Each structure stands twice: as C-alpha cells, then as structure tokens.
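Q: Hi! First time doing this. I have a protein sequence and I read that you can turn it into a structure. Is that right? Here it is:
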Amino acid sequence: MPSPLPFPPPAEAALHRELTQRIHRQCPGEGIHATAVPALSLIRCDAPTEPMHGVHEPALCIIAQGGKDVFLGTEGYHYDALNFLVVSVTLPVCGQVVQASPEQPYLCLRLSIDPGEIARLIADAGLSGAAKGPAGRGLYVQRLDEPLLDGVLRLLRLLDEPADVPMLAPLVMREIFYRLLRGPRGHLLHDIAMADTQAYRVTRAIEWLNHHYGQPLRIEELARTVNLSVSTLHHRFKAVTALSPLQYQKRLRLQEARRLMLSEGLDASLAGHRVGYGSPSQFSREYRRLFGAPPLRDLTALRQGPSASVG
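A: Yes, that's right. Below is the predicted 3D structure, encoded as structure tokens:
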C-alpha cells in the first residue's frame, strides 16, 4: 500500500470537506442509509465498535471521516480518509470501526460493484487484455486521489437532484469504475470480470459456494464446474480469498448460523443444522473458534453491544 501523505493537497482537502458534509447531512443518525442511487449506501457510526463478522460483496468503500480495520482471515487492512477499500469478490471478512466519536463520527460511502457492468465497461473502453499485474487478494487498499474523489463527490451531489439520478448516476458510476480499472490495482478488478481468466473461474467457484454453502463440498466436482484442476483451484482460490474452499465454506456457514440465531431466534442446534452441520458439538466448537465464544454467550454480547457494518 502506498505511504499516505501527511496532509492532502489543498484542492483535495476542499473536496474532502464537502464529501464529509454531504455524507453527514444524508446520515442524521447511526446506521446504514440507502440513497436514491440503488448501488450507493452511506454509513455513520458515532463510536468505535467491536469486531463484526459478515460477508462483504464487491464494492468500493470510501471513508470521509474516521478509520476502520478489515480482516480477511489473519490479514489486516486499515483504511481512512486518505485510503479507499475495494472488494472485488464476495468475501467473509471482519470489520471494526476504530476511529469515531459523536463530535467526529465515522462516515463512509459504499458503492456496489457489478462484475457484469465492469465487463461491459472493459469492452466499451477497449481495456480487454490491457490490465497486467501480479495476482493478489480480492480485497485491496489504495491511496485516494483527486480524480476519483471528484467523481464520487459528483455522484453524491446527484442526491440533491433526484430527477437527474436515473440518467446521470450510471454515467458517473462508469467513470468511477473506469478510474479504478486504470489505477495501479486495476488488473485485480479486470480479471474477475473477464471470462477467460483463472480469477474469473475462481469468482464462479466463490459464487457457487455462496449459493450452496449448506451442501457437502466435493472439491473435485467444484473444480470441474469452474473448469480448473483441483490443484489450480486450491492455489488460485487461496490467492484471492486467503482461505481454502473448505475454510471459505465454513466461514459462510458459521456467519449465516449467527445471523439466523440473532435475527430469527433459532437455537444453536437448529441453526447449525440449517447451515449444514450434522454435529451440534462440532458446530459449537467451530463457532467458538471463529467468534471467540460459544453461541449463547456470543449472542448475548452482540445484543448488548454496538455492531459494525463490514463496509
């Protein structure tokens, strides 16, 4: 990750101030706020949070104020008002707001990324085959520059002109994604959208697991489904997600079981069975290993304390 500058240039600082003011105005209270742009949501948090596990879908996340840590497996990523986060594939992550207060709340925007739209943009802009770079995680942090900040700010300004959103928002979003593709990590976004790359085949494996996490995982069948050898699937899958396919499936199962217990009131044995566990003791053991406490104690703490969005 590039070393952040101690202070942004004056023009960029002015854009940052406007970005902060506009998000603050659109977020009168804590939580995730939908907007007139379906792909755009705004997030506010008035205090640091405990770590919160969740499944992060592809998105661009830009913080206007505050700071956040995101963990992928054992790897940690920090981003703030100088650095943005891109998640290019669906990943089970853990997020924690680390810098926020009532006077200066954590303010963030999250813009969903549609791989199909990225593929169309690559074709329209003649970028097919142009992106080159080393393989990497499906998540990265990069220094925020003025052109990207300007595009994001123009998208936010459209919220004050709702009649213009249907026509102009898609154009501004294409510009934002174009700048990501042309950036130093653009190849990571490029590869997940192009059907002839191994990264795209790994993305298909990730999609399959997200739709079938409750089923037994037969790695040979999954490899055939995405047209990769077993060894290549293991290697490339871990390169993108920092997890093996089996570890990835386990994270999905445990996080969904946690959601079922928290939002639908299921007990641990039923939630574990619903997501594919045949043994309650194995479910409890693996749940505690991931979340740091057995289900009942963990849920009690979640209901009593603040939570954090993973975005």
